């Protein structure tokens, strides 16, 4: 199985900050990474698919990049509603596997 | 807007069978463009994919759970179900259902909010 190593596991930031979250895959591939947001008690929400495509209805302050083994989620200017947990997922090979998650907290 | 909702017992005894149902609203479970998956997340750990079922009834399971898992579809009720038998304490987790797109890049676009299942006597 492909391992997805996500960092950092937690992050403190302020509204208006730019933050980046990284996922490193245990093998190289292009494009097959998706990013999700999860708030406590809620269903996960798809943010970014295919490494860099913004899912319908997701604000443009969210962006994704990367290829090979390193993939990045960037939030350009944090809004109060963005404080949540974020996780990556590879869809390159079965089974789909996930990063451990990054908890984004208010500083 | 598609919505998924998990339901089932929150407490299961060791060696018994965990049974959960995912009810789908706002869309047909029979759409050929999608498949239906189960995941779980033990406390403090990442998500683990359990398996999936296509509208044809074809299934795939995670090799680590394959001998104990069955996923089935009930199109008349717009639901799909998970059965995990011979449960142990390590099966304690929040269980999620989700819709997967059969087309590349194979993301999961709708999820349930999850249900906690505790395995304990």
Entry summary:
With 107 residues, chain A is mainly beta.
Would you mind describing this structure in some detail?
- The complex is a heterodimer of chains A (107) and B (121).
- Chain A is an all-beta fold.
- Chain A contains no helices and ten strands.
- Chain A has strands at 4-7, 10-13, 19-29, 33-38, 45-49, 53-54, 62-75, 85-90, 97-98, 102-106.
- In chain A, the strands form two sheets. In chain A, strands 2, 4, 5, 6, 8, 9 and 10 form a seven-stranded mixed sheet that branches. In chain A, strands 1-3-7 form a three-stranded antiparallel sheet, with no helix packed on it.
- In chain A, strand 8 (85-90) and strand 9 (97-98) form a beta hairpin.
- Chain B is mainly β and 121 residues long.
- Helix content of chain B is 0%, strand content 52%.
- Chain B has no helices and eleven strands.
- Chain B has strands at 3-7, 11-12, 18-25, 34-41, 48-54, 59-61, 69-74, 79-84, 93-101, 108-111, 115-119.
- In chain B, the strands form two sheets. In chain B, strands 2, 4, 5, 6, 9, 10 and 11 form a seven-stranded mixed sheet that branches. A four-stranded antiparallel sheet of chain B has the order 1-3-8-7, with no helix packed on it.
- In chain B, a hairpin with a 4-residue loop joins strand 5 and strand 6 (59-61).
- The model of chain B has no long low-confidence stretch (mean pLDDT 96).
- The A-B interface holds A 31-32, 34, 36, 41-46, 49-50, 55, 87, 89, 91, 94-101 and B 4, 45-49, 60, 62-63, 96, 98, 104-114.
